[in-house]
Amino acid sequence: MGHLLKKNTIGWFFILISVLAIGLFYFYPMIQALLLSFQSGMGANLQYVGLDNYVRLWNDPSFMAALGNTCIYLIVQVPIMIMLALVFSVLLNDTTLKFKGLFRTAIFLPCVTSLVAYSVIFKYLFGVDGLVNYFLVKLGWMTEAINWLADPLWAKVIIILAITWRWTGYNMIFYLSALQNVDRTIYEAARIDGASNLQQFFHITVPMLKPIILFTSITSTIGTLQIFDEVMNITNGGPGNATLSISQYIYFLSFKYTPDFGYAATVSYVIVVLIVVLSIIQFRVAGDRND
Amino acid sequence: MIKIKRIFTYVFLSIASLISIFPFLWMLVSMTNSSVDVTKGRLLPGTHFIENLKELFATVDLIPAFVNSTIIAFVTTFLTLLIASLAGYGFEMHRSRGKDFVFNLLLLSLMIPFAAIMIPLYRFFGNITSVFPAIGIDTLSAAILPTVTTAFFIFFFRQNTKMFPKELIEAGRIDGLSELGIFFRIYVPTMKTTYAAAAIIAFMNSWNNYLWPLVILQSPEKKTIPLLISNLGAGYAPDYGVIMTAIVIATLPTAIVFFFMQKHFVAGMMGSVKG
């Protein structure tokens, strides 16, 4: 009994720093943010204002733009990326394919770059005097350069392209590793039964990888909802508020405009709610198909 | 028919690979070209590298930023590994219902978006600045502290600890080692590859971190590499050759880590999902 008690106490000792640090740097600030979201004022001069900040959300065009943009990034980018990563992994899982290692490394390479570094590169690739314009004009596909980043629609497209470039290979690696554990005889049996490649993909590969697809969907959703580095460095939220993301708006509210920490905290809780709701939905959808 | 499909696969993968690599090639080539050549779409190496390098060192304080990033990345990696492996070990080796509950609670923190806790954290460090100036706003410590404990790495170490042979611990107890002695003398050396995988990911995350350093580090001499790169691009008449040189230098450490430890890096990612 004494030994058991001692072992248990030592177990708690091992996890003590983590519990304290996560409490101090995650949960305590979360509660602080909730309290802050009911306060308003300039800088350190804050007063409780009840639900005013939450009412303000509905009449704030910048917030609505940020929310809309972030949702567009999410809805367009995450499915494209997951699909693309699945296709790459299925193609690269073919044992008879040559140069597999080369293709895999190449497609995976973007995720070693820092978000800021690649954002700056994308900014110049799609600048008015950037490389993309230069070649499109030179090849005669366009008569004159497009100011991609000054166009509300194209600017969003570039942001989506950028995130997809950075993260597809990252997700691919998860699928590739999971596919290596799938028994190949299942595919042989399916082929003998006359299943096409497409049927094999949707009826064998996708169901087999479901747990990993759920994992990557949730991490990608959480990541995209928090997107900051790219919009800050490629478009700075512009033109107008056409690419502004929620995280960037929080940053602007706190450190660029007249600081209103209370309202910024209110906006931040929108991301919290979105993450929780979307994660529950994703779990539900994956769970239903399980039965 | 099968042949056409095969050719299509190769073409598709080649195009995808080219798109993936192209920005890297472009930045490497542009590093050696003048700004004008970069905008003229020159895709061949030039002779401007030394000039770009000189210009870069003349316009920005690259060395201090590099030093700051290096200090932050190394300290963060060391503390992350220490704290997370202690916890992963504690959760897996000394299991109890209470700890399982705490573990699940810690995992919940993975859902907390950084943007939501950024302002309270900033205010927290602001409040302690007058009492503990060494860890207050605009210090490297403040840039490091909130980033060293993440549930991801605790989860990662716990997952990998499941494979650890428990007899080794019993052997250590019989030899009279203390619990901490067992951890440092037996567990740590045995788990080398797990530590390597976690170290790479922690180092890359820290080296590339942007938002928190942007918020907490304010004076120019405290800037990190991502903050410096971000500022370089903000000018009206950017010198593309110089910026590309800076980006290559900024990317070099993580690229080197990646190339020499590719296997561990991938193992680290997978370690986070295996059951």
UniProtKB/TrEMBL annotation, chain B:
<feature type="transmembrane region" description="Helical">
    <location>
        <begin position="240"/>
        <end position="261"/>
    </location>
</feature>
<feature type="transmembrane region" description="Helical">
    <location>
        <begin position="7"/>
        <end position="29"/>
    </location>
</feature>
<dbReference type="GO" id="GO:0005886">
    <property type="term" value="C:plasma membrane"/>
</dbReference>
<feature type="transmembrane region" description="Helical">
    <location>
        <begin position="62"/>
        <end position="89"/>
    </location>
</feature>
<keyword id="KW-1003">Cell membrane</keyword>
<feature type="transmembrane region" description="Helical">
    <location>
        <begin position="101"/>
        <end position="125"/>
    </location>
</feature>
<feature type="transmembrane region" description="Helical">
    <location>
        <begin position="131"/>
        <end position="157"/>
    </location>
</feature>
<dbReference type="InterPro" id="IPR000515">
    <property type="entry name" value="MetI-like"/>
</dbReference>
<dbReference type="Pfam" id="PF00528">
    <property type="entry name" value="BPD_transp_1"/>
</dbReference>
<keyword id="KW-1133">Transmembrane helix</keyword>
<dbReference type="GO" id="GO:0055085">
    <property type="term" value="P:transmembrane transport"/>
</dbReference>
<keyword id="KW-0472">Membrane</keyword>
<feature type="domain" description="ABC transmembrane type-1">
    <location>
        <begin position="66"/>
        <end position="261"/>
    </location>
</feature>
<keyword id="KW-0813">Transport</keyword>
<keyword id="KW-0812">Transmembrane</keyword>
<dbReference type="InterPro" id="IPR035906">
    <property type="entry name" value="MetI-like_sf"/>
</dbReference>
<protein>
    <submittedName>
        <fullName>Carbohydrate ABC transporter permease</fullName>
    </submittedName>
</protein>
<comment type="similarity">
    <text>Belongs to the binding-protein-dependent transport system permease family.</text>
</comment>
